[in-house]
Amino acid sequence: MSSTITYTVTGMSCGHCEKSVSSEVSALPGVTEVAADAKAGTVTVSSAAPLEDSQVRAAVDEAGYELVGRSA
To answer: What is this structure's pTM?
Structure first.
């Protein structure tokens, strides 16, 4: 069962930020696609199965940014 969730991330301001977040989140097991958008302050994660928010939060933290929740 695949899953796609958009999260709100603070601190991203440029393409380098987007690449950093995408790289860390892409390394999570089961992730099939990541789209970070610095202007919107979001990262959309598609995965083969639902991920725990804590996994995504840890990856975003590792990239140096803060996941503040799911986008509406």
So the answer is: 0.94
